[in-house]
Amino acid sequence: MKPILSILFALLALSVTACDKADSPVQPTPTTAPLTASPGIRVEHSAVAPGKGKAMVLTANQSVSGSLDSGNGGQLEALGVRMGNYRNSADGSLSLKLCVEGACQEALMPLAGSKDNDFLVFELPQPIVLAKAQKIDYILTRSGDATNRVAVWAYPARKGQAGLTDPAGTKTDLVPRLELHLSK
Q1: Using DSSP, how many helices (H) and how many strands (E) does the chain show?
Q2: Which letter, b or e, does each residue of 75-104 get, where b requires 16 or more Cβ atoms within 10 Å of its Cβ?
Q3: Which tens digits make up the pLDDT trace of 21-65?
Q4: Residue 144 is part of which domain span?
Q5: Closest CA to 51 of 21, 76, 77
Q6: Is residue 143 exposed (0-12), middle (13-18) or buried (19+ Cβ within 10 Å)?
Q7: N or C: which end of the chain has fewer CB within 10 A?
Q8: Which helix (H) or strand (E) covers residue 127, if one does?
Q9: Do the strands 118-130 and 174-176 form a parallel or antiparallel pair, or are they unpaired?
Q10: Can you give the pLDDT at residue 39?
Q11: Residue 3 burial by CB count (10 A; 0-12/13-18/19+): exposed, middle or buried?
Q12: Which residues contact 7 (CB under 8 A, 6 or more apart)?
């Protein structure tokens, strides 16, 4: 029993010290879906390169923007972004502006009750039909009423992949971990 407790305490200590140094998640197969996925929806994760994650902090009225390819295509119902809410202290909301070939939609998600270090999923007002490898542009913006910070988890970009533009307007070599929720 004593060795088990020692191992558990060691794992707990490692997980606490590694909170801001998360490695890139393992690339899931398209059949891997979070518990929040609805029946009839497949979830595809955006690709990131191996390496440590970085919390890209957003405070009131700050934005990050970027783009990604749609992968296999399909009918996009929702988009999720892996974010940190600083142990459930994030307030206000996070908005998404998503554009495909100039046609844009917006969605808003409150941060109260969101899960820390998990995906915040934005349901789109209207599904978007995506062709294979079609470019998707997005902007994530923090609400003006926010008093506590929130972070978008960003990881090294793969070779040839466009990086995020950070809140200061600087192009980075980091990309967020995104989920595309597509109709089957």
Answers
A1: 1, 11
A2: ebbbbbbbbbbeeeebbbbbbbebbbeeee
A3: 444 444 333 333 333 556 789 999 999 999 999 999 999 999 999
A4: 22-183
A5: 21
A6: middle
A7: N
A8: strand 118-130
A9: unpaired
A10: 79
A11: exposed
A12: none
Mean pLDDT of 133-142: 96
Residue 4 lies in a domain: no
Amino acid at 106: E
* pLDDT tops 70 at residue 79: yes
Asked if residue 178 belongs to a domain, the reply is yes
Number of domains forming the structure of the chain: 1
Name the residue type at position 68.
L
CATH at residue 169: 2.60.120.820
Which token pair is 4?
């088990």
> Six-digit token pair at 22?
């998360």
- In-domain check, residue 11: no
